Known about the structure:
It is a single chain. The protein is an alpha/beta fold. It is built from eleven helices and 15 strands. A seven-stranded parallel β-sheet has the order 6-5-4-9-12-14-15, with helices on both faces. It is globular, with a radius of gyration of 19 Å.
Amino acid sequence: MRQFERRQQLLQRIHSQGRQSVDSLAGEFGVSVQTLRGDIRHLADKGLVLRRQGEVLPFPEQENIGYDQRQIVNVAGKRQIAARAASLVQDHQALFLGTGTTVEQLADALSDKQGLHIMTNNLHALIKLCQLKCELVVAGGRVRRRDQDVIGGDAWRFFQRYRADVGIVSVGGMDSHGQLYDYNDDEVMAREALLAHSSYRVLVLDKTKFDLPLRCSAGRLSDYDAVVTDVPLPDKLRSPLAAQGVRFMG
């Protein structure tokens, strides 16, 4: 396994399973403790994990890690989600895209669509979308520099001005009961306006967000017409919602 792939899997393991022993991780990844410590030092220097004596912990969840840091977490899973979500979009539709790295992956997955009208507050996605043959409208206002997006009141007013056939968003986390969460009210505010003006609402959620309750309530799975994941959700969440017509892809 190459160094980059090992560090990617290591980061995913720590964020999905919590506190880990350095010795046990070295054994599981088949490398020396010294090599594993080098990987952890690299991740810690980037602010992705916390080091303790003989252990490594996820970065504290009071605030999301930076956008560039999140881009290396579960890349394969996010691309898989993007391809599935793109199948829900038809040519010539109006599309809202929210913030986040999983939504950003949609910019590549939509390359074969024709005549789309896309509105977004995700500046990372915007850069990629500029390569597509589509009409683009971007939210204006105060930019959150770390994540390079526009949220809060500026994004709320932007999405209030339009209507979309499909709205695609992500969230910060989900607990075991299907309650959704995010890191701050500004993110929730922008998403609520986006969803309120979307005829068909799609949630994209990779496995690192499972069992991750955060500070701000951000709705429930039942608020969406489709939920797209990289691994199946537990049956206890899927079954009652499927009966209500929610579509699951994952």
